[in-house]
Write the structure tokens for this entry.
Amino acid sequence: MSSPLKTQKKVVVFDYGFGNVRSAERALARAGADVEITRDYDKALNADGLLVPGVGAFASCMTGLREARGDWIVDRRLSGGRPVMGICVGMQILFARGIEHGVESEGLDEWPGSVEPLQAEIVPHMGWNTVEAAPGSQLFAGLDPDARFYFVHSYAVHDWSLETHNPAMTAPKVTWSTHGKPFVAAVENGALWATQFHPEKSGDAGAQLLTNWIGTL
């Protein structure tokens, strides 16, 4: 008796005007997902996974996301435990605020904390770098500890932790990288995962990471 065909997971790349949506689409398809680029509210709300990309300025990304009702979609999905993944500025806007050129902008506030200028001699941080994966990470499962990922950013979250006082709650898994000063490179927190680097531009390591995420959907 033949086994039933495995159904591909449906992943929506949210198209709100601020992200490398085509690169993300190709990388997710390579990782085995059924991918659609759209800003359609219902499709984004009901997909197995939602990927929120982001490039450019924090404030501009937030404006574009709100205009496309992306803030509502992310909140609704997470309220129902539906997976969301942010990439680059798509990760940064998940925090409470971003500070660029001395101007503070509100983020989605899914996590407390501020996105601030990198504390390094050379900015932007552009190129390949290793990470220190969180113990027990599902996102980095099966990856070589020396695997490198592609970063392009001038801002990051430093000195961050999210304390949990309820024993029924699991603390987020936080992965770090260093450029000048250590900064948050990835977070796994229930249904909400995110990376500061670009997995879609990180070759085989990035492909494995996306495969890991899709495998949890």
About this structure: Residues 10-212 form a domain with the Rossmann fold fold (CATH 3.40.50.880).
